[in-house]
Design goal:
alpha/beta; 35% helix; globular; 8 helices; 206 residues; 18% strand; TIM Barrel
Length: 206
Amino acid sequence: MTLIVSIPQARVEMAKAAEDAGADAVCIRLDTAKDKSDLIKIVDCVKIPVGATLEGESAVSETQMTGLYKLGFDFFDMSLAGIPSWALKLEGLGKIVALDQDYSAYDLTGLSQRSIDAIDAAVIPKEALGKDLLVGDLQHYITICLSTGLPVIVPTQKMIRVSEVPIIWDTGAKGIILTDIVAGNTLQSLKAVTKEFKEAIENLKE
Protein backbone atom coordinates (compact mmCIF):
# COMPACT_ATOMS: atom_id res chain seq x y z
CA MET A 1 0.00 0.00 0.00
CA THR A 2 1.29 3.42 -1.01
CA LEU A 3 1.20 6.32 1.45
CA ILE A 4 0.84 9.76 -0.12
CA VAL A 5 0.88 12.76 2.20
CA SER A 6 -0.98 15.89 1.15
CA ILE A 7 0.98 18.59 2.95
CA PRO A 8 -1.20 21.45 4.23
CA GLN A 9 1.30 24.13 3.23
CA ALA A 10 3.87 24.33 0.45
CA ARG A 11 6.78 24.41 2.87
CA VAL A 12 10.07 22.53 2.61
CA GLU A 13 9.85 21.52 6.29
CA MET A 14 6.45 19.94 5.73
CA ALA A 15 7.59 17.92 2.73
CA LYS A 16 10.77 16.83 4.46
CA ALA A 17 8.89 15.83 7.62
CA ALA A 18 6.54 13.66 5.57
CA GLU A 19 9.45 12.01 3.78
CA ASP A 20 11.37 11.39 7.01
CA ALA A 21 8.26 9.83 8.58
CA GLY A 22 7.89 7.33 5.74
CA ALA A 23 5.71 8.90 3.06
CA ASP A 24 6.10 7.32 -0.37
CA ALA A 25 5.12 10.61 -2.06
CA VAL A 26 3.93 14.10 -1.17
CA CYS A 27 1.21 16.13 -2.82
CA ILE A 28 0.98 19.94 -2.81
CA ARG A 29 -2.02 22.20 -3.28
CA LEU A 30 -0.60 24.87 -5.54
CA ASP A 31 -2.69 27.61 -3.94
CA THR A 32 -0.66 27.21 -0.74
CA ALA A 33 2.59 28.21 -2.48
CA LYS A 34 3.67 31.86 -2.26
CA ASP A 35 5.57 31.63 -5.52
CA LYS A 36 7.39 29.22 -7.82
CA SER A 37 10.48 29.22 -5.61
CA ASP A 38 8.55 27.36 -2.88
CA LEU A 39 7.77 24.55 -5.32
CA ILE A 40 11.33 24.36 -6.60
CA LYS A 41 12.70 24.08 -3.04
CA ILE A 42 10.36 21.21 -2.21
CA VAL A 43 11.17 19.26 -5.36
CA ASP A 44 14.88 19.77 -4.73
CA CYS A 45 14.80 18.81 -1.04
CA VAL A 46 13.00 15.46 -1.17
CA LYS A 47 13.86 12.23 -2.94
CA ILE A 48 10.31 10.87 -3.08
CA PRO A 49 7.85 11.75 -5.89
CA VAL A 50 6.12 15.14 -5.66
CA GLY A 51 2.63 15.77 -7.02
CA ALA A 52 0.27 18.70 -7.45
CA THR A 53 -3.38 18.76 -6.43
CA LEU A 54 -5.35 20.70 -9.04
CA GLU A 55 -8.95 21.88 -8.90
CA GLY A 56 -9.82 21.61 -12.59
CA GLU A 57 -9.47 23.14 -16.02
CA SER A 58 -9.89 26.71 -14.75
CA ALA A 59 -7.13 26.25 -12.20
CA VAL A 60 -4.28 25.48 -14.57
CA SER A 61 -3.41 25.82 -18.24
CA GLU A 62 -1.54 23.41 -20.45
CA THR A 63 1.47 25.72 -20.35
CA GLN A 64 1.40 25.79 -16.55
CA MET A 65 1.08 22.01 -16.40
CA THR A 66 4.07 21.60 -18.68
CA GLY A 67 5.86 24.02 -16.37
CA LEU A 68 5.20 21.73 -13.41
CA TYR A 69 6.87 18.88 -15.26
CA LYS A 70 9.87 21.08 -16.00
CA LEU A 71 10.08 22.02 -12.32
CA GLY A 72 10.41 18.34 -11.49
CA PHE A 73 6.87 17.36 -10.47
CA ASP A 74 6.08 13.69 -10.94
CA PHE A 75 2.27 13.56 -11.00
CA PHE A 76 -0.95 15.50 -10.62
CA ASP A 77 -4.30 14.79 -8.95
CA MET A 78 -7.31 16.42 -10.65
CA SER A 79 -11.08 15.94 -10.55
CA LEU A 80 -12.42 13.58 -13.20
CA ALA A 81 -15.37 15.92 -13.68
CA GLY A 82 -13.14 18.87 -14.52
CA ILE A 83 -10.10 17.34 -16.17
CA PRO A 84 -9.44 18.77 -19.66
CA SER A 85 -8.75 16.32 -22.48
CA TRP A 86 -5.27 17.75 -23.05
CA ALA A 87 -4.23 16.84 -19.49
CA LEU A 88 -4.61 13.13 -20.24
CA LYS A 89 -2.32 13.47 -23.24
CA LEU A 90 0.61 15.02 -21.37
CA GLU A 91 3.72 12.89 -21.23
CA GLY A 92 6.03 12.66 -18.25
CA LEU A 93 3.46 13.33 -15.52
CA GLY A 94 1.58 10.61 -13.67
CA LYS A 95 -2.19 11.13 -13.77
CA ILE A 96 -4.47 10.58 -10.78
CA VAL A 97 -8.13 11.45 -11.30
CA ALA A 98 -10.41 12.17 -8.36
CA LEU A 99 -13.98 10.99 -8.21
CA ASP A 100 -16.51 12.99 -6.19
CA GLN A 101 -19.73 12.17 -4.33
CA ASP A 102 -21.70 12.26 -7.59
CA TYR A 103 -19.66 9.58 -9.34
CA SER A 104 -21.60 6.97 -11.27
CA ALA A 105 -21.04 3.50 -12.65
CA TYR A 106 -20.75 5.18 -16.04
CA ASP A 107 -17.79 7.22 -14.77
CA LEU A 108 -15.97 4.03 -13.79
CA THR A 109 -16.62 2.28 -17.09
CA GLY A 110 -13.64 2.47 -19.38
CA LEU A 111 -11.35 4.39 -17.01
CA SER A 112 -8.68 1.73 -17.33
CA GLN A 113 -8.67 2.26 -21.10
CA ARG A 114 -7.84 5.96 -20.67
CA SER A 115 -4.42 7.44 -19.93
CA ILE A 116 -4.96 7.36 -16.17
CA ASP A 117 -2.60 5.88 -13.60
CA ALA A 118 -4.77 5.81 -10.46
CA ILE A 119 -8.10 6.86 -8.98
CA ASP A 120 -8.50 9.17 -5.98
CA ALA A 121 -11.69 7.92 -4.30
CA ALA A 122 -12.72 11.32 -2.87
CA VAL A 123 -16.40 10.37 -2.76
CA ILE A 124 -17.35 11.57 0.72
CA PRO A 125 -19.91 14.43 0.70
CA LYS A 126 -18.90 17.72 2.34
CA GLU A 127 -21.31 17.35 5.24
CA ALA A 128 -19.66 14.06 6.24
CA LEU A 129 -16.04 15.24 6.13
CA GLY A 130 -14.11 14.55 9.32
CA LYS A 131 -16.67 12.10 10.70
CA ASP A 132 -16.15 8.44 11.57
CA LEU A 133 -15.67 5.88 8.82
CA LEU A 134 -18.88 3.95 8.10
CA VAL A 135 -19.69 0.62 6.47
CA GLY A 136 -21.33 2.55 3.62
CA ASP A 137 -18.05 4.35 2.93
CA LEU A 138 -16.24 1.03 2.70
CA GLN A 139 -18.88 -0.24 0.28
CA HIS A 140 -18.19 2.74 -1.98
CA TYR A 141 -14.47 1.95 -1.97
CA ILE A 142 -15.11 -1.74 -2.69
CA THR A 143 -17.41 -0.86 -5.61
CA ILE A 144 -14.81 1.46 -7.11
CA CYS A 145 -12.01 -1.09 -6.71
CA LEU A 146 -14.09 -3.86 -8.31
CA SER A 147 -15.26 -1.66 -11.18
CA THR A 148 -11.87 -0.70 -12.55
CA GLY A 149 -8.51 -2.31 -13.02
CA LEU A 150 -6.76 0.88 -11.92
CA PRO A 151 -5.17 1.33 -8.49
CA VAL A 152 -7.57 3.08 -6.11
CA ILE A 153 -6.27 5.49 -3.48
CA VAL A 154 -8.43 6.43 -0.50
CA PRO A 155 -8.02 9.97 0.86
CA THR A 156 -8.63 10.56 4.56
CA GLN A 157 -11.79 12.60 4.10
CA LYS A 158 -13.20 10.74 7.08
CA MET A 159 -11.46 10.52 10.46
CA ILE A 160 -9.74 7.29 9.48
CA ARG A 161 -7.82 5.80 12.38
CA VAL A 162 -4.53 3.95 12.19
CA SER A 163 -6.33 0.82 13.37
CA GLU A 164 -8.58 1.04 10.29
CA VAL A 165 -5.72 0.80 7.77
CA PRO A 166 -6.23 -2.99 7.40
CA ILE A 167 -9.94 -2.36 6.69
CA ILE A 168 -9.03 0.09 3.92
CA TRP A 169 -6.62 -2.50 2.54
CA ASP A 170 -9.34 -5.14 2.55
CA THR A 171 -11.52 -2.99 0.26
CA GLY A 172 -8.93 -3.50 -2.46
CA ALA A 173 -7.45 -0.01 -2.23
CA LYS A 174 -3.77 0.28 -3.09
CA GLY A 175 -3.01 3.53 -1.31
CA ILE A 176 -3.98 6.20 1.20
CA ILE A 177 -3.75 9.96 0.79
CA LEU A 178 -3.17 11.37 4.24
CA THR A 179 -4.86 14.79 4.53
CA ASP A 180 -5.00 17.45 7.23
CA ILE A 181 -8.32 16.02 8.48
CA VAL A 182 -6.30 13.24 10.08
CA ALA A 183 -2.73 14.57 10.06
CA GLY A 184 -3.47 18.10 11.26
CA ASN A 185 -1.82 21.33 10.15
CA THR A 186 1.31 21.40 12.28
CA LEU A 187 4.73 20.02 11.51
CA GLN A 188 4.70 17.89 14.64
CA SER A 189 1.30 16.28 14.03
CA LEU A 190 2.05 15.69 10.35
CA LYS A 191 5.24 13.84 11.14
CA ALA A 192 3.76 11.82 14.02
CA VAL A 193 0.63 10.72 12.15
CA THR A 194 2.53 9.91 8.96
CA LYS A 195 4.87 7.69 10.96
CA GLU A 196 1.93 5.89 12.59
CA PHE A 197 0.22 5.24 9.25
CA LYS A 198 3.48 4.06 7.68
CA GLU A 199 4.00 1.56 10.47
CA ALA A 200 0.44 0.29 10.08
CA ILE A 201 0.97 -0.16 6.35
CA GLU A 202 4.23 -2.02 6.89
CA ASN A 203 2.46 -4.34 9.33
CA LEU A 204 0.11 -5.40 6.51
CA LYS A 205 3.00 -7.35 5.01
CA GLU A 206 3.48 -9.48 8.11
